[in-house]
Give the backbone structure.
Amino acid sequence: MSAALNKGLNVPRGPACSSPRARRLAEFLSEMIPGAASLQVGLQGPHTRWPHLEVTALDEAGAPVVLTRAQVLTAARCIIRTYPDAGWQQPRTFHLRTALLDGRAA
């Protein structure tokens, strides 16, 4: 990842912050989805045999950011793999600036 791209992310570091893996994920998703500040991730039909992934990207003002199907699938899968024990029956929000899921560290 280039230094120029990392400068604009402002992902906090320190013991009260997210894990290095979550910070790398936030950096990756920030590059993949420019303008997004947070991603709301959930499963449609979480109790069915094949639940569908659902992601809504929001900018700093809370306005939706348009995503392609590939971006939705990639973001959802990466976030769920980073936080496998988050209890995905309920939608969660991943904050790209802090690399935290619903305010919790990975």
In short: The two ends are 21 Å apart (CA to CA). Strands lie at 38-44, 52-58, 64-65, 92-95, 100-101.
